[in-house]
């Protein structure tokens, strides 16, 4: 079975260099898309983190915390 290292990110985290994350051997990111019952409760860093991770070729997953 293959093993991959992933990091879980939300607005509580600060990642400034996604290329450094990839170069450190991290396979991808799991992003919190939001929380609660309302679409308005989207994680404020989701779009920023998604765009940055995609730009460097990291694999991306997402979840809604409720």
Automatic annotation (TrEMBL):
Any one GO MF annotation of this record? lysozyme activity
**Xref: PROSITE patterns:** GLYCOSYL_HYDROL_F25_2 (PS51904)
InterPro entries attached here? GH, Glyco_hydro_25
Q: Read off the SUPFAM superfamilies from this record.
A: (Trans)glycosidases
The cross-references to Pfam families, in alphabetical order and at most eight, read: Glyco_hydro_25
Q: Report the sequence similarity comment from the record.
A: Belongs to the glycosyl hydrolase 25 family.
Q: What is the name of the protein in this document?
A: Lysozyme
Organism source for this protein? Candidatus Egerieicola faecale
């Amino acid at each position: 079975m293959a093993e991959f290292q992933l990091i879980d990110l939300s607005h509580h985290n600060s990642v400034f260099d996604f290329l450094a994350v990839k170069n450190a051997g991290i396979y991808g990111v799991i992003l919190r898309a939001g929380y609660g019952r309302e679409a308005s409760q989207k994680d404020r860093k989701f779009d920023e983190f998604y765009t940055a991770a995609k730009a460097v070729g990291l694999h991306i997953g997402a979840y809604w915390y409720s």
